[in-house]
Amino acid sequence: MANIRSNPNETAFGTVSGTTILKVRDSATNLQGETTLAELAPLTDSVTAGTAAAGKAVVLDSSLNIAGINVAGIARIDLDSETKTLTANAVTTTKWACVITTEALTTAHTAAETLVITKTGVAAGDLAMISLVGGTNTQGVPVFNAVCTTNTVTITLRNNAIAENAFNGTFIFNLIIFKA
User: Fold this and answer.
1) Bridge partner residues of 115 (DSSP)
2) Which of 97, 98, 148, 170 could form a disulfide with 135 if both were Cys (CB 3.0 to 4.6 A apart)?
3) How far apart are CA 164 and CA 167, in angstroms?
4) 174 with 130: CB under 8 angstroms?
5) Do 69 and 61 contact (CB within 8 A), yes or no?
6) Is 111's pLDDT higher than 90?
7) What is the DSSP string of 36-83?
8) Which one, of 113, 121, 125, lies nearest residue 166 by Cα?
9) DSSP bridge partners of 23
């Protein structure tokens, strides 16, 4: 199948890794075939980064970054994530997205907890997005923020209750870390 040509009716599908076979189906004729990335390489040798017409190709520059895309509309992202429970207000994650459950907290009003999430590869200036999505706590007024530093995301969870109203349970956060 080294003779694949660009055609608006062709659809490529499959998972690319190592020696993965790429399956190609022409939707107009419903003909299917298979090829490898090695067979496709000669077809892309003459493509210069940033020169492909919109809708025709995805071109990687020498750093393997997608060239020429400034805005992308995305309907859905499926993130590789994991669920973690803090012990002594700390946990290590290997994923860039995770669901974090705190221990049962009894933080007094106007006090704060520091939650430390260790993730290799995080750097100062990266973006950590957190949202409170559940837990067993029914008291206090939780206010939180996240800051990225070297290999760490630090979440500060404050109890902004005005009167004696301590936290009385767990909190569940969704965390997503984006590279700056």
Assistant:
1) 155
2) 170
3) 10
4) yes
5) no
6) yes
7) EHHHHHHHHTTPPTT-SPTTT---B-TTSPBSS------S-----EEE
8) 113
9) 13, 34
1-21 pLDDT tens trace: 334 444 455 444 445 544 555
Torsional sign, CA 69, 72, 77, 79: positive
Q: Which of 114 and 7 is assigned the larger pLDDT?
A: 114
Where in the chain are all domains bearing CATH 2.60.120? 81-178
Tell me the average pLDDT across 78-101. Answer: 94
- CATH of region 81-178, choose from 2.60.40, 2.60.120, 2.40.128, 3.30.70: 2.60.120
SS3 5: coil
DSSP state of 107: P
Q: How many residues comprise the chain?
A: 180
Mean pLDDT score, 60-77:
61
Let me know: does 90 contact 107? Beta carbons within 8 Å: no
Q: What is the distance between the terminal CA atoms of the chain, rounded to a whole angstrom? A: 41
Q: What is the pLDDT of residue 162?
A: 86
Residues 6+ away with beta carbon under 8 Å from 81: 95, 96, 97, 98, 99
- Helix (H) or strand (E) holding 6, with range, is none
Decide: 55 and 10 in contact? Cβ < 8 Å. Answer: no
C-alpha triplet 171, 84, 169: angle, nearest 5°: 20
